[in-house]
Specification:
Layout: H1 2-20, E1 22-36, H2 39-52, E2 56-58, E3 65-78, E4 82-101, E5 106-126, E6 129-150, E7 163-183, E8 186-198, H3 210-215, H4 224-228, E9 242-254
Antiparallel strand pairs: 1-3, 1-9, 2-4, 3-4, 4-5, 5-6, 6-7, 7-8, 8-9
């Protein structure tokens, strides 16, 4: 009799866990804020403002905050106690900084960073809420900075600093945390992560135009004073990365496994 009761309890528990466990395909989108801290760009900002201070009505504000969008899809498992997810997606971040001069001219910088990524999650479930760890692998992360000068008449104005400076990291990774809530088949998640490794960080932001190489201005300068005086300078290294905070809304459809 006891064996029969124990057997029935095991069967009932197994069925309950199966009812709780769900396998989903998911698609989602969200916004990302990234907080970069590049010593090279900070030094460029300081030296650029120092050189041009007498003629500027607004200093360069810096290159610290980047915002953008992310799009992803993949698989998510939600059990009675555990949840896991494997996702693939693409994200793009943008930042800009402008310096204004007394005569109405402006120096404009715009930075784009985009990458494909693979993301894995694993965590604990409490009802419709879950918390877990996060690993994100970025593939072929590309950074591009466009530097241009606009004068008050609106015509083109050419300077040595003008150009499109680019760099690339073939492989990079972040570790972080995810906090999510589920309502039926809708998932709302907050994710925070920080970089832990990247390749190609020894490279620099470069403009590969032949005239820039011939002039010696193909690397974006870390020191505007040396750049202006045509002295040797190191250049801004390919280390434009930092903390990332994302809010993601995802929609699920059941899959049968």
């Amino acid at each position: 009799m006891m064996r029969t009761i124990l057997f029935l309890l095991i069967i009932e528990s197994s069925c309950s866990l199966q009812l709780w466990s769900q396998h989903y395909g998911v698609v989602g989108t969200g916004v990302t804020l990234s907080l970069y801290d590049s010593a090279d760009l900070n030094h460029f900002k300081q030296t650029y403002n120092a050189v041009n201070a007498p003629n500027m009505s607004q200093f360069l504000s810096g290159f610290d905050n980047y915002v953008g969008l992310r799009f992803e899809g993949g698989y998510r498992y939600v059990g009675y106690r555990l949840t896991t997810a494997v996702l693939a997606g693409w994200r793009r971040l943008t930042s800009s900084s402008n310096g204004l001069f007394n005569n109405g001219d402006s120096r404009n910088f715009r930075i784009h960073s985009d990458a494909f990524y693979l993301e894995g999650e694993a965590g604990r479930v409490w009802g419709n809420v879950f918390v877990g760890g996060l690993l994100t692998l970025f593939l072929n992360r590309r950074v591009s900075m466009k530097s241009s000068y606009s004068n008050i008449s609106g015509s083109d104005y050419s300077e040595r600093l003008d150009g499109a400076y680019k760099a690339q990291s073939f492989f990079a990774g972040d570790l972080g945390l995810v906090l999510g809530v589920r309502k039926n088949r809708t998932f709302l998640m907050a994710k925070i992560s920080r970089p832990v490794f990247a390749t190609n960080t020894g490279g620099h932001l470069r403009d590969s135009a032949p005239e820039k190489i011939l002039d010696g201005s193909d690397r974006f300068p870390d020191d505007f004073i040396k750049f202006t005086n045509r002295e040797p300078y190191a250049g801004v290294r390919n280390r434009l990365d930092g903390w990332k905070i994302s809010i993601v809304l995802a929609f699920a459809f059941k899959v049968f496994i």
